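= Tokenised fold =
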Amino acid sequence: MSWLPLSFGAPMVLWGLLALPVIWYLLRLTPPRPRTEVFPPLRILARVLRREETPHQSPWWLTLLRLLMAALVVTALAEPIFNPREKLPAEGSALALVIDNDWASAADWGKRVATAERLIADAGSNGVPVVIAFTAEKPNAEIGPFDASAALDRLRAADAS
């Protein structure tokens, strides 16, 4: 979904959110009261030790907090990605890159090279040839098509100059 800035690496894990009502029901259950057995030497300790009382049900805010934590664990297991980048389409004949490499692009040259390397790597994983052209080159310079490794070499050569 491109209209949302959030994507999931494993969206099928989100089906685990349907288990929240079951978790709520299990949290509402209380175990049966334990039977008390009288053991005479413990009568002395019974007077010394304070009685620990447990409530019959957990408070509503504690149950809500536990359900919220379970929902956050399920969402975290779904590998959320904020602002995912679009992959190159697998179909098509070639990836064409025209990179401005004149003096005015020096301020953000590192970003341009990183973006071009990412696009070339995606093209290489899809087996798509790359056509790469630089604006500050001779008019008769070869622009391709290249395979991904040759295009990366050409990009790095332009980066070094």
Remarks:
- Helices lie at 20-28, 42-48, 60-77, 109-126, 148-160.
- The chain has a mean pLDDT of 76.
- DSSP finds five helices and four strands in the chain.
